[in-house]
Write a structure and sequence with these properties.
127 residues, mainly beta, OB fold (Dihydrolipoamide Acetyltransferase, E2P), globular
């Protein structure tokens, strides 16, 4: 799954020792856009954030998996990122005027409707 959201907070990094060696985890809190914004805490494992300079307000594109596990009769759900990219082109740059951020963050409008040709059912299906 993929999520594009604004970075709200970077929580302290956590490290530990497991059966497979040392591990490192960083939690970040992002906020979605829209009429009813939602905050989501995303866990980033390993060195996936080393190439980014994270600043609150920055728009991030996050590829993630959702995973739940049971422990002592209770269920816990994690949002685990496997890729984090800055909303700016190429992951670099310094301007807030970048046009590579999703349209919803640039002008709060929905994307344009697809061309009429895409709605046509006159063509044969490939299967």
């Amino acid at each position: 799954m993929q999520l594009t959201a604004k970075l709200v907070q970077v929580l302290p990094a956590q490290t530990g020792q497991g059966k497979n060696g040392e591990w490192k985890k960083q939690d970040i809190v992002v906020e979605t856009d829209g009429q009813y914004p939602k905050k989501v805490c995303v866990s980033v494992w390993g060195d996936k954030l080393n190439h980014l300079k994270l600043e609150p307000g920055e728009v991030l594109t996050i590829d993630f998996d959702v995973e739940s596990r049971e422990y002592n009769g209770k269920w816990y759900t994690d949002v685990k990122a496997w890729r984090v990219a800055s909303g700016e082109a190429g992951g670099a740059g310094s301007g807030s005027g970048s046009n590579s951020a999703p349209a919803a963050y640039r002008n709060n409008n929905f994307p344009d409707a697809p061309p009429a040709s895409m709605n046509s059912f006159d063509e044969d299906l490939p299967f």
